[in-house]
Amino acid sequence: MARLIFIILLVSLSNNALAQNNKTHVGRFEISVGAGVLIPVGKFASTSTTGFEQTVFEIQGDDQYDIRFFSKKNHAHAKRGGDLNIEINYLTKRNWVHGIGFGKSSNTVNLEKANIVFSESPFSQISSKIIHQQDFNINYLTYNLSYDLSIKKTSIRPYQKIGLSQLDFPYYHLEEETEWKISFIHEGDQPRSSGLYFESGVITNISLSNKFELGLNLSYRFADFDYTMYKRVVPGGSTTFIVPDQVNMRAIMTGFRLAYKL
């Protein structure tokens, strides 16, 4: 809520500034390409196995069970990853910058502690192991609002982004370590999960010429993604369990951007 209020105030102030000077404003567009390192923090980085014992339901019945699953809510086990982004911005005479942004980030998953838990199978005495876990691949589309403070050839630009994001379905493949290769799989579609996306940060730009700027970007971003898995044993079949879960993306991004002013 505080972030939404902050964004509304910035938009309001920006619109007032534009209205007061609409006769003299000559806008300038800017296109930038950025890349950086995405560092998981908080829930996204946590490698705790607390919460692996989940209460789940049969897909055809009301019976519930406490079974060990790779729950990512509050403990996503994300590793350091990367981010690529493109922005199209409009710079005003009053130093406000409006824009839209597109981006993609990716973080692999740390399976070490999870596989220690799964070494004791919840269904038998046979050891199990996660042999595949989908990376946390996130696409996002944002509205950007920032304020550009210029000092000679350097500028500082604090910004706020709000938008929509999508996460690739974070399925995993759990296999018993026997010659029979019995697996505990997700059954059904693997839809992307959607969620609101927020990012707060600051960019420090250095002018290279009248057209080009090189910037250092530092930001904090977060989004929550709900998804549901339907797990059963193959081959041989078993009761299918409904396993609701959530990925709480919390990360710090640091990187560079190259901007071209039209």
Could you please describe the fold and organization of this structure?
With about 260 residues, this protein is mainly beta. It is built from 3 helices and 14 strands. The protein has helices at about 1-20, 40-45, 110-120; strands at about 30-40, 55-60, 65-70, 80-90, 95-105, 130-135, 135-145, 150, 155-165, 170-175, 185, 195-205, 210-235, 240-260. Strands 1-4-5-7-9-12-13-14 form an 8-stranded antiparallel β-barrel. The longest helix has 19 residues, at about 1-20. The protein is elongated and about 70 Å long. The two termini are about 35 Å apart. The model is unreliable at about 5-25 (pLDDT under 50). Keywords: Signal. It comes from Belliella kenyensis. This is Outer membrane protein beta-barrel domain-containing protein.
What is the topology?
Blueprint: H1 2-20, E1 28-40, H2 42-45, E2 53-58, E3 64-68, E4 81-91, E5 96-107, H3 112-118, E6 128-133, E7 136-147, E8 149-151, E9 154-167, E10 172-176, E11 183-186, E12 193-207, E13 212-234, E14 241-261
Antiparallel strand pairs: 1-4, 1-14, 2-3, 2-14, 4-5, 5-7, 6-10, 7-9, 8-9, 9-12, 10-11, 11-13, 12-13, 13-14
Quick recap:
With 262 residues, the protein is mainly beta.
List keywords for this structure.
11% helix; eight-stranded antiparallel beta barrel; single chain; 14 strands; 262 residues; 3 helices
